[in-house]
Amino acid sequence: MNCRQAQNLFGAYWDDELTQAEREWLEAHFAACAACRTAYEDLGRTLELVGGFPRADVAPDFAERALARARRAAAEPDRVPAVTPRWIPITATAALLAVLGTMVYQWIGFPQGPARRDAPIALDERIEQPVRISAGQVPPAAAVGSREGGSSGGAASGALVAAAGEIPDSLFDHAEDVEFILDAVTLRKGRAHTVVRAPQDQPRAQQAVITF
Amino acid sequence: MQAPLALDRETSPLPIVRLSDEDLMGGVAEGDERAFTELVRRYQGRVTNLVSRVLNDREASDDLAQEVFVRVHIHRRNYRRGSKFSTWLFTIAANLAKNEIRRRVRRRNWFSLDALQEMLSDSAIQLADPKEGQETALQRGQLQEAVGRAIAAVPEKYRVALVLRDIEGFAYEEIGQMLGIPGGTVRSRINRARGMLKRKLQPLLRKEGL
Q1: Which among B37, B67, B197 has CB closest to A46?
Q2: pLDDT attached to residue A155
Q3: Residues 6+ apart with CB under 8 A from A23
Q4: Does A68 touch chain B (CB under 8 A)?
Q5: What is the mean pLDDT of residues A22-49?
Q6: Is the pLDDT score of B190 beyond 90?
Q7: Which among A115, A128, B118, B166 is placed 20 to 30 Å from A152, CA to CA?
Q8: Is A50 within 8 Å of B151 (Cβ atoms)?
Q9: Are strands A191-194 and A185-188 parallel, antiparallel or unpaired?
Q10: pLDDT tens-digit profile of B95-136?
Q11: Which residues pair with residue A209 across a beta bridge?
């Protein structure tokens, strides 16, 4: 250690806060260094002067005046700290919870019950259902017109009934299912790139088939 | 665990002068004026001395010390029972003293060094031992005047820590709590303040042969 390091310990030495090793080293340094010894003695005399500074006088009626002044201050509403009404934090907490609940509700989503999800969609009876008409068949409107005409009405209605039995549930002909084959794709930097050619020596990648 | 506070002072098993500061403060929080007066009596000297040494203004220090106790009374319900009363009290005192210094600096209404010198000289002569010779009393007065001026010349943030430590004798940890700064910062400020004081007073010490 040098003189600078020794001077850094002066305050702690005065306050008796040095470790035993630091104390022994500093006292050995004092024995060998007159400049540091003098500097520490100057500091000690300074602090003795400060510590021995005469204490300020206190007026004999100090306590009574302080009490009277405190009474006056208590009577002044602007000096008394305002008390926060209790309903403010309660209302603020309730509002915060409501906002949080709304945010969580929107984030998670409201789960639909199975009855609602699986319930069949009721068709409006007033909506006219589409009818598949094969080539050669008579349209219902024409059949009705011919029925109104009065000739061969019984034969036409029988043909319509037979044709109605062949009408499928939907407009799609399930006999001709459509298959969409999705080639493997890779994503690079957010853009889709179709893999043009798969390696020949490796088995072909799996294909995803979606059938309607 | 502190003993429960007896609210009725007349029937209290302990006389009011023997109650702890914290018990007295509990009484103050419930509106006991006797407890408040007792606390003022206990600390009026140290509080007045602190603000006097920080401000270096004897007349203003009485008013400011009064204000410290008024603040204690106003904020009596903010005092936490488990904490040390003196630390809370001197936190208020140090803050008020610092605010007063800043207010004076802002208003540029700081008293002149001549007025300070005269004031300190009067104070020192009054406080000197009357048995001493007049010459010795004057020398002592001049020395104390110089010390007061040297303390007043230390920047505020170092000065408050210095007065709390080297005049009021608080521990570093307590000073840290009062000023709201870590213990290492307290040590640093006090060491710097001591160095400033020593540099200012060194010529006088050599001259006086102290």
Answers
A1: B197
A2: 58
A3: A13
A4: no
A5: 92
A6: yes
A7: A128
A8: yes
A9: antiparallel
A10: 999 999 888 877 754 444 444 454 444 444 444 444 555 556
A11: A181
Instruction: Determine the Cα–Cα distance for residues B64 and B103; give it in Å rounded to an integer.
Output: 13
Q: Measured on CA atoms in the order B51, B52, B57, B61, is the torsion positive or negative? A: positive
Quick count: other Cβ atoms within 10 Å of Cβ A208? 10
CA–CA separation, B210 and B206 (whole Å): 7
Task: Write down the pLDDT at residue B4.
Answer: 42
Q: Between chains, do B33 and A67 touch, taking CB under 8 Å as contact?
A: yes
Nearest-angstrom CA–CA distance, B26 and B81: 7
Mean pLDDT calculated for residue range A76-93: 73
Instruction: Report ipTM for this prediction.
Output: 0.74
Interface probe with A: pick from B173, B194, B206, most Cβ of A within 10 Å: B194
DSSP string, chain A: --HHHHHHTHHHHHTT---HHHHHHHHHHHHH-HHHHHHHHHHHHHHHHHHTSPPPP--TTHHHHHHHHHHHHHH-TTTSPPPPPTHHHHHHHHHHHHHHHHHHHHHH-PPPPHHHHHSPPPPPTTSPPP----TTPPPHHHHHHHHHHTSSHHHHHHHHHHHHHT--SSSS-GGG--EEEEPPEEEETTEEEE-----TTSPPPP-EEEE-
Residues in chain B closer than 8 A to A11 (CB atoms) = 187, 190-191, 194
Is residue B185 pLDDT above 90, yes or no?
yes
Q: Is B187 on the interface with A (CB under 8 A)?
A: yes
Nearest residue to B206 (alpha-carbon basis) of A151, A54, A41, A206: A41
A4: pLDDT strictly greater than 80: yes
Question: Would an 8 Å CB–CB cutoff place A46 in contact with chain B?
Answer: yes
Query: CB distance from B167 to chain A under 8 Å?
Result: yes
- Cα separation values, B10 from A24, A64, A85, A150, Å: 57, 20, 35, 122
Are B45 and A63 spatial neighbours (Cβ–Cβ below 8 Å)?
no
Cβ-based neighbours of A51, under 8 Å, separated by 6 or more: B166, B167, B169
B62: number of Cβ within 10 Å: 20
